[in-house]
Design brief:
Two copies of one chain form a homodimer. Chain A is mainly α and 313 residues long. Chain A has 13 helices and five strands. Chains A and B meet through helix 1, helix 3 and helix 8 of A and helix 1, helix 3 and helix 8 of B.
Chain lengths: 313, 313
């Protein structure tokens, strides 16, 4: 298989076969296919797109390029969520404890900031002496004990995405729906959750400029979820304004804690309740949105979801 | 200047500035800009194109990436021609002696075959003990003595094109009009001729599929010629059938010699007379096409253009 023919096929607007996509990802990971061919293919994909079948195969090839987290010793439904992110997006910090307090298992793999906004790990580490869980045994034990743990991304998971993302970043090929969708979903699938909720943001402060583009990305990811038989749902939310009032890692932690105490900004609280209610329904902890929302409001009101230390001081 | 911004600008369909194009070519030649960024840019150019100003700047940047042949010690108008090539295209072998016999100076730099057809050098070397002119002094002396010499392409001329062509070949980015036009014209301009005739072929046996595409390429090259104040003209010719009857280096030499003896195939002879008459007008050896054609027919008829040895045996 000559890889230049795969590039030319995509350039001509044709769909790639599963064999061609596997050859691309395996060949790139083992060094047989050079960067300059992959960047040309990614650029062709930016212009010609990929259909949902190709996108699912690309995600599958990336997923199987590395290990997958085995969470089978965690009892119950393991819920994950992903936000495409934006300024002031501290959703995981408040949402994860809320849904964990309602009985969901949250075994979450989080990243660091890629752009100008910090990632969840950066925000958590702004807490003095906070220690991110380092190994899988501690991670699984903590989820079984308190329903919630966050671990840093491992190099052993989805190594193809690490390579591909670094190349896309310097070759002007980041903003392609199938490339973004397969990258996000490969990481979500590798981290072993049973259900996935996607918060796809659009607007001036988000990566997707319009609600239509955000919906297109959401649909591409839901189609991948369907390919892997995972309950995958999405919210399309606006990001013309920063989320909440606080921007900056430490300030965002304070705002998340305040939200768990019922004193959070209206927009951020509403987003957490909305997302949390979908997660509770995915985990079958609630039959409908009203019940789910009431459960989340209850854990805030009764203090079940308080941090053990007061980080708001 | 961050090169990824140049890639993204072209991807978005915007025109690049002269500074951006110079940065690209200089940076690529000196190793500061990596292959994987250049291949992504070339792919974006395949989709978004370049306007005539950008194409001229690209050609200029490539031309000045190396040396230019100094032919100032040759008296008279130095004519060059270029064919986009195809199966059976041995035009240079017959055309160059014909126009040289009519008083034009032909100081031609020729290449070897890139694809399945041989280049002019390959064809000439099928003649037993034929020696391609090796150095510039011999080359210039021979042009002054017999009006005609052919030299092999030098690595010192247009090194940017050597790099870029090799990359385009393996990254599926060959078929872009501005990239082809600037590549051909940079080599023609570097080889120092006063006038340039382009034979742009279309059809099943040619690189350009249709007459419209061939005309587009011809216009792009003529615009570059205008930018450099060089008399540049083009013919658009069909290549649905191989040119002449002979295919294969040695057979093509025989057919070219037969053509110079007035025994060539009709289509090939007509093409040589047509191209030759334009070259004679460019060199101001003839005022009009009728006179030029008569001059060419005369040198064939009176044997002025015979090879010194009979290669047709």
């Amino acid at each position: 298989m000559r890889f230049v023919e795969t590039i030319e096929k995509k350039k001509a607007g044709k769909a790639l076969s599963k064999a061609e996509i596997n050859h691309w990802i395996q060949g790139y990971c083992n060094g047989e296919i050079p960067d300059y061919q992959v960047s040309a293919l990614c650029m062709a994909i930016c212009f010609q797109g990929m259909n949902s079948q190709e996108t699912a195969w690309l995600c599958e090839a990336m997923l199987y390029s590395g290990e997958q987290l085995d969470l089978s010793c965690i009892d119950g439904c393991i819920c994950d969520k992903h936000s495409t992110g934006g300024v002031g997006d501290k959703t995981s910090l408040a949402l994860a404890p809320m849904v964990a307090a309602c009985g969901c298992k949250i075994a979450k793999m989080s990243g660091r900031g890629l752009g100008h906004t910090g990632g969840t790990l950066d925000k958590l580490e702004s807490i003095t002496s906070f220690r991110i869980v380092q190994n899988e045994q501690d991670f699984i034990r903590q989820v079984n004990e308190i329903n919630l743990a966050i671990i840093g991304q491992s190099d052993r998971l989805v190594p193809a995405d690490c390579l591909l993302y670094a190349l896309r970043d310097v070759s002007g090929t980041v903003d392609s729906i199938p490339l973004i969708a397969s990258s996000i979903m490969a990481k979500k699938l590798a981290s072993g959750a049973d259900t996935i909720l996607l918060d796809v943001k659009y607007g001036e402060g988000a990566f997707m400029p319009t609600a239509e583009k955000a919906e297109e990305l959401a649909n591409a990811m839901i189609a991948i979820g369907r390919h892997f038989h995972k309950d995958t749902r999405a919210m399309i939310t606006n990001m013309d304004q920063p989320l909440g009032m606080a921007i900056g890692n430490a300030l965002e932690v304070k705002e998340a804690v305040a939200t768990l105490q019922g004193r959070g900004p209206h927009d951020f609280t509403r987003l957490c309740i909305e997302a949390g209610s979908i997660m509770l329904m995915q985990a079958k902890q609630a039959d409908n949105k009203q019940t789910a929302q009431a459960m989340l409001q209850e854990v805030i009101a009764n203090g079940k979801v308080q941090f053990t230390r007061d980080y708001t001081r």
